[in-house]
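#dry-run=false #mode=assembly
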Amino acid sequence: MATTSKFHPTESSVPPAGAVNVQLKEPKGFPVHVQPLNPLSFLLRASQIYPNKLAIAHSDAKNPVFYTYGVWAQRVQNLAYALIEAGIQPGDRVAVIAPNSPAIADAHHGVIAARAIICPINTRLTAPEVAYILEHSGARLIIVDHEYKHLLPPTQARVVVCDDTGRAGDPYEEFLASGRRFSRERGWGGLEWEADENAGAALCYTSGTTGRPKGVLTTLRGSYLAAVANAYETKMTPDSVYLWILPMFHACGWTYPWAITAAFATQITLRTVNMSQIWYHFLKSGVSHYCAAPTVQISIVSAPEARKVPRPITAVIAGSAPTAQLIGDLETKGILPVHVYGLTETYGPFMKAYTQAAWAAMSLEERSRQMARQGFSFLTSEPVRVVHQAAEDASDAPLVDVPQDGRTVGEIVMRGNIAMKEYFRDADATRRAFAGGYFHSGDLAVVHPDGYVAIQDRSKDIIISGGENASSLAIEQELAAHPDVLEVTVIARAHPKWGERAMAFVILKADAAPKWKGRHAEFGDALRKHAKGRLPGFACPEWVQVVDELPKTSTGKIQKVELRKMVAKL
Amino acid sequence: MATTSKFHPTESSVPPAGAVNVQLKEPKGFPVHVQPLNPLSFLLRASQIYPNKLAIAHSDAKNPVFYTYGVWAQRVQNLAYALIEAGIQPGDRVAVIAPNSPAIADAHHGVIAARAIICPINTRLTAPEVAYILEHSGARLIIVDHEYKHLLPPTQARVVVCDDTGRAGDPYEEFLASGRRFSRERGWGGLEWEADENAGAALCYTSGTTGRPKGVLTTLRGSYLAAVANAYETKMTPDSVYLWILPMFHACGWTYPWAITAAFATQITLRTVNMSQIWYHFLKSGVSHYCAAPTVQISIVSAPEARKVPRPITAVIAGSAPTAQLIGDLETKGILPVHVYGLTETYGPFMKAYTQAAWAAMSLEERSRQMARQGFSFLTSEPVRVVHQAAEDASDAPLVDVPQDGRTVGEIVMRGNIAMKEYFRDADATRRAFAGGYFHSGDLAVVHPDGYVAIQDRSKDIIISGGENASSLAIEQELAAHPDVLEVTVIARAHPKWGERAMAFVILKADAAPKWKGRHAEFGDALRKHAKGRLPGFACPEWVQVVDELPKTSTGKIQKVELRKMVAKL
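#status=ok
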């Protein structure tokens, strides 16, 4: 990978010679043994211990830039001062509309250093959705990447455009330079450490398939502890290289902007999910870690560039459970899947499918079934519970755990330091979500006798066929094992005799598509035959439809609601 | 290593079938997003995720025992109930006088589960010293290993003797069984989670070379964050096997009782520091981690059993800096030294000599000089400062950092979540130690231009020779590189011309001792010649004395004060 020698940061990005103080002004009134937790501490440590280590490589952009931890920290400090000079007060929201790039990485640290709240906005939203979030969040300043200016509504907020050049003349660079001038070299000591570790850190809006997006407010304490857990659970070290495939705007990149920095690792920012770029970095840049949803993981292993990687890569998978097929494909290439589960409301990952030694002796299929479960809570999260769903009118009744029988379905609920603080400016939604003193995930699961939690389906994903409950997830797991299937999703479709029956939508693998061209009905028969050996009769798909693509949300989740609408019209 | 099948735990150590709840009664009044930190959470997680994994192997005792995480957690729960039934109230102190063994490992979790404070007492102290600590701490219950009963004074406190058998009939086992009966299978849910994360966790007495020992009170929050840092910084995983060489009574084993459990690793408890046992486990039990002071490390690499280990072992070194000789000897055997620094007042390790990539290209000697520095603060600790020492009467004056010039000597001071809460029942000592809002370590150091903190000496360890300041540590580092030197320590001795001059006390290596028998003066000449090539003249030892052993404190630190007394009489 290219090194920092290829790029000279702007004058105001270079720390003054001999600047060594990495401590902010301490809040008053704390005893010697208490320091409010704050994920900013990780970047401060990195800039002190590894000032000359490569922190960010933004190598694939039109204007590649490379920052060491020393330079990056200076830029973050400049950003904090620039925000304060622009009138940002503690607790104010600062919105960021940007793809994976240095500016949004900066903002995860600089906004917090100004004691404000970062509000990263999904670049795949429509202009009216962005307008809603900007208004609802009350963002007083917006950092927008030049490519997404068209998403901006007319606004009273200060707008800082980033041309993503890193060069003088870029409005974002001018903004940082204004911070450096305002700082008058007071350095970190001129900024105040937030005294309340439960103050807001980030405000991330859920993409919400129904209704308006909701603003998930997280805290400094939670971000700190979640980042530590992510660094620990995925074994990141100073030797690690993290590739940004997951968008940083998605639940603050699952706290990885802080976790990577806590580990003193290097991060590579990719503006787009581009398979050639991804495979270039896998093969040439020493990548050791990345995060992505299964649909993206499927594209990665199916890319023409895919081959065995020179260094083992840890692939963190969340969004939905990986299939045996995907796990096998990843492992063949030297990519080690780690299955985690969480929601925006839990800072991203909250649980992990902890591996047991005994699994090593299992067949890939059996092992994958174990790994596809959601498992147990992370190092710094409280144990999840799976509880009987209370009637709507009994929301204050105590929660009752389901038995560990692998059969009784309940709802996953969680609390503790890695649960959100609230839905911003939505007391009703917060109260509903926190019924019984736990956050209600809406995800339905069983607890197996070995204690592993396994998601069955959201209630609407259960197919009730002839009085039997079939899990669309379980059906998808089995259909994905067919050698010609690239990606598959299953929904319930009304059936005159059985009430409901499964319908499968399949994308064929590139090399299998020609074989079945014009013979999709025959492929359907082949897939049903495959299913019969693996699933009870009531769970076998009655209908199979081959498609070129599946409708997905802006964060890559398959939109079953769209498929259901389509099927309802058939 | 032997497995659990060789030992059947007592009836009351076996968890009830189907017991699955691992959550204590939640404290009232906390929002969904805040859970008070408590290191007990690690054992609860381990018992849930890895109930059948080997947690503790106490294999070398007269009565070997082996506990899985499931069984161990049940024993800890029994202990908590037994303590409560015995009248222990939240905040009470429970003393433990025991060598490394399951009982003291239990106590690190069970005492906290009863919301009490563990007070581990050094087994190498004299009976009067133990009596002082028991009285000062106000311990209401004492768990004492059968081998150390003689240390107990007449006491009003309840005494529970542990015969370290793990078998029915052992008074300690009966105590645990009483807890199980009292529990009436209410399980974890019958115990209360401590609401105040800043409540006391442990009370460890410093061995204090001068004056009475002082009681260092730590907190639950601090113990949690220190344990996470130790697990992270030493890369412990479920696959790790930790060998107890460091006594658990020493600063709560540097928080490793919790760190090992946080990592789901296996721990092997050794009652004594026995080289044959240590090397047996290195070679046969898959040991991956241990902690020890340099003097113990020297014994390990010099043992006749020493050879290349089959699995890389991480050796955490603290107490004083490792010499190049020791680092080389460890590395040759496949043991990877990690140099950390801290004090009882900082939960043990607080800093680490973080490795830089550039060091790999250095000679062993040069690399060792880098590694021997104390470095930077841990993941979860605040940056240390090295400050000009204020005059005694100006203790409230703001602290002023020394320049990063590698020459200006100041005092290491620290604060934050991994600094102690107070000296128990000693407000004066606490106030003095916390002057200026930082804990004062008493260790003198410089800050190098690269930011690494390097201890010079405690002020009395500096040798002032002809107006020049010579560091006894630096002299020791160089003398240790002589091929015949096993261990060396240097003190100042009065000199008629120069004021002071260095005097070296040397233990020869076993294979070199015969060569110099009766020729110690010649050895002294050889060592001085060696020193002249490496040290300025004023730092070369004027006197060299070969000895068979060095006076050490109960925790293995060399007692220079004893050597000084001896020399004063010469």
